[in-house]
Design brief:
BirA Bifunctional Protein, domain 2; binds magnesium ion; OB fold (Dihydrolipoamide Acetyltransferase, E2P); alpha+beta; elongated; 458 residues; 8-stranded mixed sheet; 2 domains; binds 4-amino-1,4-dioxobutan-2-aminium adenosine-5'-monophosphate
Length: 458
Amino acid sequence: MEHIELHKLRSGEHIGKKVAVCGWVRTSRDSKNVAFAELNDGSELNHMQIVFDKAKFDDKTLAPMLALGSALRVVGTVEKGMKDESVEILAESAELLGGSDVSYPLQKKRHTMEFLRTIPHLRVRTNTFNAVFRVRSELSYAIHEFFHKNGYYYVHSPIITGSDCEGAGEVFKVTTVGYDPSIKSEEEYNKKDFFGRSAGLTVSGQLEGEVMATALGKIYTFGPTFRAENSNTPRHAAEFWQVEPEVAFADIDDIIGIATDMIKSIIAHLLEHCAPELAFFDERFENGLLAKLRHVVDSDFARIDYADAIEVLKKSGKQFVYPVEWGLDLQTEHERYLTDEYFKKPVFVVNYPRKIKSFYMKQNPDGKTVAATDLLVPGVGEIIGCSEREADYDKLLKEITDRGMKLSDYADYLDLRKFGSVPHSGFGLGLERMLMYVTGMANIRDVIEYPRTKDDLK
Ligand code: 4AD
Ligand code: MG
C-alpha cells in the first residue's frame, strides 16, 4: 500500500478510510489501554496523532515504536480527532523502519539554541528548525516567482572568480598549491597554481550579472556567496546566499521601487503559504511578527538621505559605541536605531559618501556621494545593498586606479562602459538576513543548516 503524506489528511476527506503513513516519532505517551505517538513526516508543522489500541499491540512491540526519534510506517483508519479540525489515525498495523534509543539527543525537554547548533544533523527534526527550513524553501520559491513573473532571466554567475567585487579584501582563496618553501614570490606561486593566476570564491555575482543585464536587459542571480569576514556577529556568515537582480535602463529610483515591490511580494507570498510556521514564530520567537509582516505589505517604506540620517543619529540623545560623523560608515547600532526606533519600519538610506562604498557605484554630481542605498529593517539592520552603477568609462577607470585595484582584473567590466554603455542598477538581498526578518530568528546560525562562521565548520 502506497503511503500518503500527513498534510494531505488534514482536509478530513480521508475520514473513515484506511491509509498508510510514514514519519518520525516526535513525542509519545503510554497508558494502560492505549498508547499515542505524535508522528511527523516533514510535510507540515503539525504532528499526526497515532493511536495504538493495546489490545492489538503488545508492550514489547510497542516500546521501540514509542521511542523518540524512531521512524515508523503505520497502516490504520483516519478518524476525527478530539480537537476541532484535527484528525488522527487508529493504527491497525505498524512497522518499525528505524529504531532509536535513549541516547537520541532530542528528548522531551526544551533545548537551547546553542546546544542545538552542536547537532545540525538532528536539530532540523525539531519544530523550530523544521519551520525555519520550510520557510527558507518557500522564500526561495517566492523570490524566483517574483522575478519570473516580472520578466527577469535567472542567470548563473561563477562561484570561482578572479576579481573582488566588493573590494573589501574578504575573498577566500581557491588554490591547489600547498606549502612549498622553494616558491620565492607571490607571482611564482600564482603561476604554479591551478588557473595560472590567483583565484577566489565569489563575494557577489554582480559583476557578471552586469554583463548579462547589458545583453538580456533584466536578470537576477541567486546563489551562494562567500566572505572571509573576521567578525563574529549574529548577522554575518562566511557562506551565505544572495539574490542579485541587475536591470538595464534603470536608475536608483527605479531600482528602489523594484526592491520595494520584491520585498512586499515575497512577504505576501509567505503570509499566504507559510501561515502555520509564521504563527509559530509569532508565538515562540517574536510577538507581533504577523502584524509586522502585514504592515510591511500594506505601508510605504521610509527613505532618508545619509546626511540627514547622520543628523537624526546625532540628535537622538543615544550613547553609541561608534562615532557618528558624516563620512563614517553606519554601524549596526546606528542602523538599528534608525529602523527599530526612529522609523519603526523598513528604511532606505540613500546617497552614502563615496569613500565608504564600493568602486562601481554611480558618482553623484556633488562629487562626494554615490547613488547607493541600503535597506534597513527592524530587528536585523541591513538586508539589501543597492546602487545605480557608474556608467561613465573615465570616471570608473579613475576610481579603479585611485583605489589601487588591478586594472587587468576589470578590463572586461570596463568594456561594458566602452560598448553601448547604459544607465543600470541592481541590488543584493541577503537570503539569510531576509529569513531572519520574516521568522524573528535572532542569529544567522539558526537559519542555515550548516552555518560557516569564523573558527566554526561542522
Ligand atoms: O551590501 P553587499 O556587500 O552588496 C553587494 O555585495 C553588492 N554587490 C550587491 C549588488 O548590488 N548586486 O551585500 C548584499 C547583502 C547585504 O545587504 C546583506 O543582506 C548580505 O548581502 N550580506 C551578508 N549576509 C550574511 N553574512 C554576510 N557576511 C553578509 N555580507 C553581506
Ligand atoms: Mg552592504
